[in-house]
Design brief:
Chain A has about 90 residues and is mainly alpha-helical. Chain A is built from four helices and no strands. The interface between A and B is large, with 48 and 48 residues.
Chain lengths: ~90, ~90
C-alpha cells in the first residue's frame, strides 16, 4: 500500500466516525435544539447516494465508510425529532 | 459523463454543503450548546487530510468539495467556542 493510499484510508476512517461524538453527546444530554435538521437530512441523502455509488462500483471502502455514517445520520435524525424541542441549560463547551 | 460519474458528482455536491445549514442556523440563533466540539474537530482533521490527498493526486472534485467543507467546519469550530456556552430556549425543530 502506498503512502497516498494510507492517507486516503486514514482520512476515510476519521470521516466515518465524524458524527459519532454528536450521537454520544445528544444521547447523553437528550437535547438537540441547536442542531440543524437540514444538516443531517443532507448528510443522509448524500450518504445513501455514496452507498449506491460504492455498491455499483463494488468499492468496499466507500461502502464501509458510508454505512457507518448512515447509521449515525439516521440516529441523529431520530434524536432531532425526539429531543429537538428540548435544550440543555448547562454551560459545558 | 456516465450515469455513475453523475451520481458521484451529485453525492459530492450534497456532501460539500452538508454543514452549511448548521452554519446558518448557529449564526442566526447564536447558540451552539448542543453541538459536539469533537464532531467538528474530527470533520476539520479529516477534511484537511482529504485536501492533501486531493492536492497530491491533483483531483479537482476532491479539492473543491473538501475546501467548502473545511470552510464550514472552521466556521463551526469558531461558533462553538463563541456560542458554545449559550443555548436557545425556543421550541423550534
Amino acid at each position: 500500500m502506498t503512502s497516498i493510499q494510507l492517507l486516503g484510508m486514514a482520512a476515510g476512517s476519521i470521516s466515518a466516525i465524524t458524527f459519532l461524538p454528536q450521537v454520544i453527546k445528544t444521547w447523553k444530554t437528550k437535547s438537540a435544539g441547536d442542531i440543524s435538521l437540514l444538516m443531517f437530512t443532507f448528510a443522509t441523502i448524500s450518504v445513501i447516494m455514496w452507498l449506491v455509488y460504492g455498491i455499483i462500483l463494488r468499492d468496499i471502502p466507500i461502502i464501509y465508510t458510508n454505512s457507518l455514517v448512515l447509521v449515525c445520520s439516521l440516529v441523529m435524525l431520530y434524536f432531532k425529532f425526539r429531543f429537538g424541542k428540548k435544550t440543555t441549560t448547562t454551560t459545558e463547551l
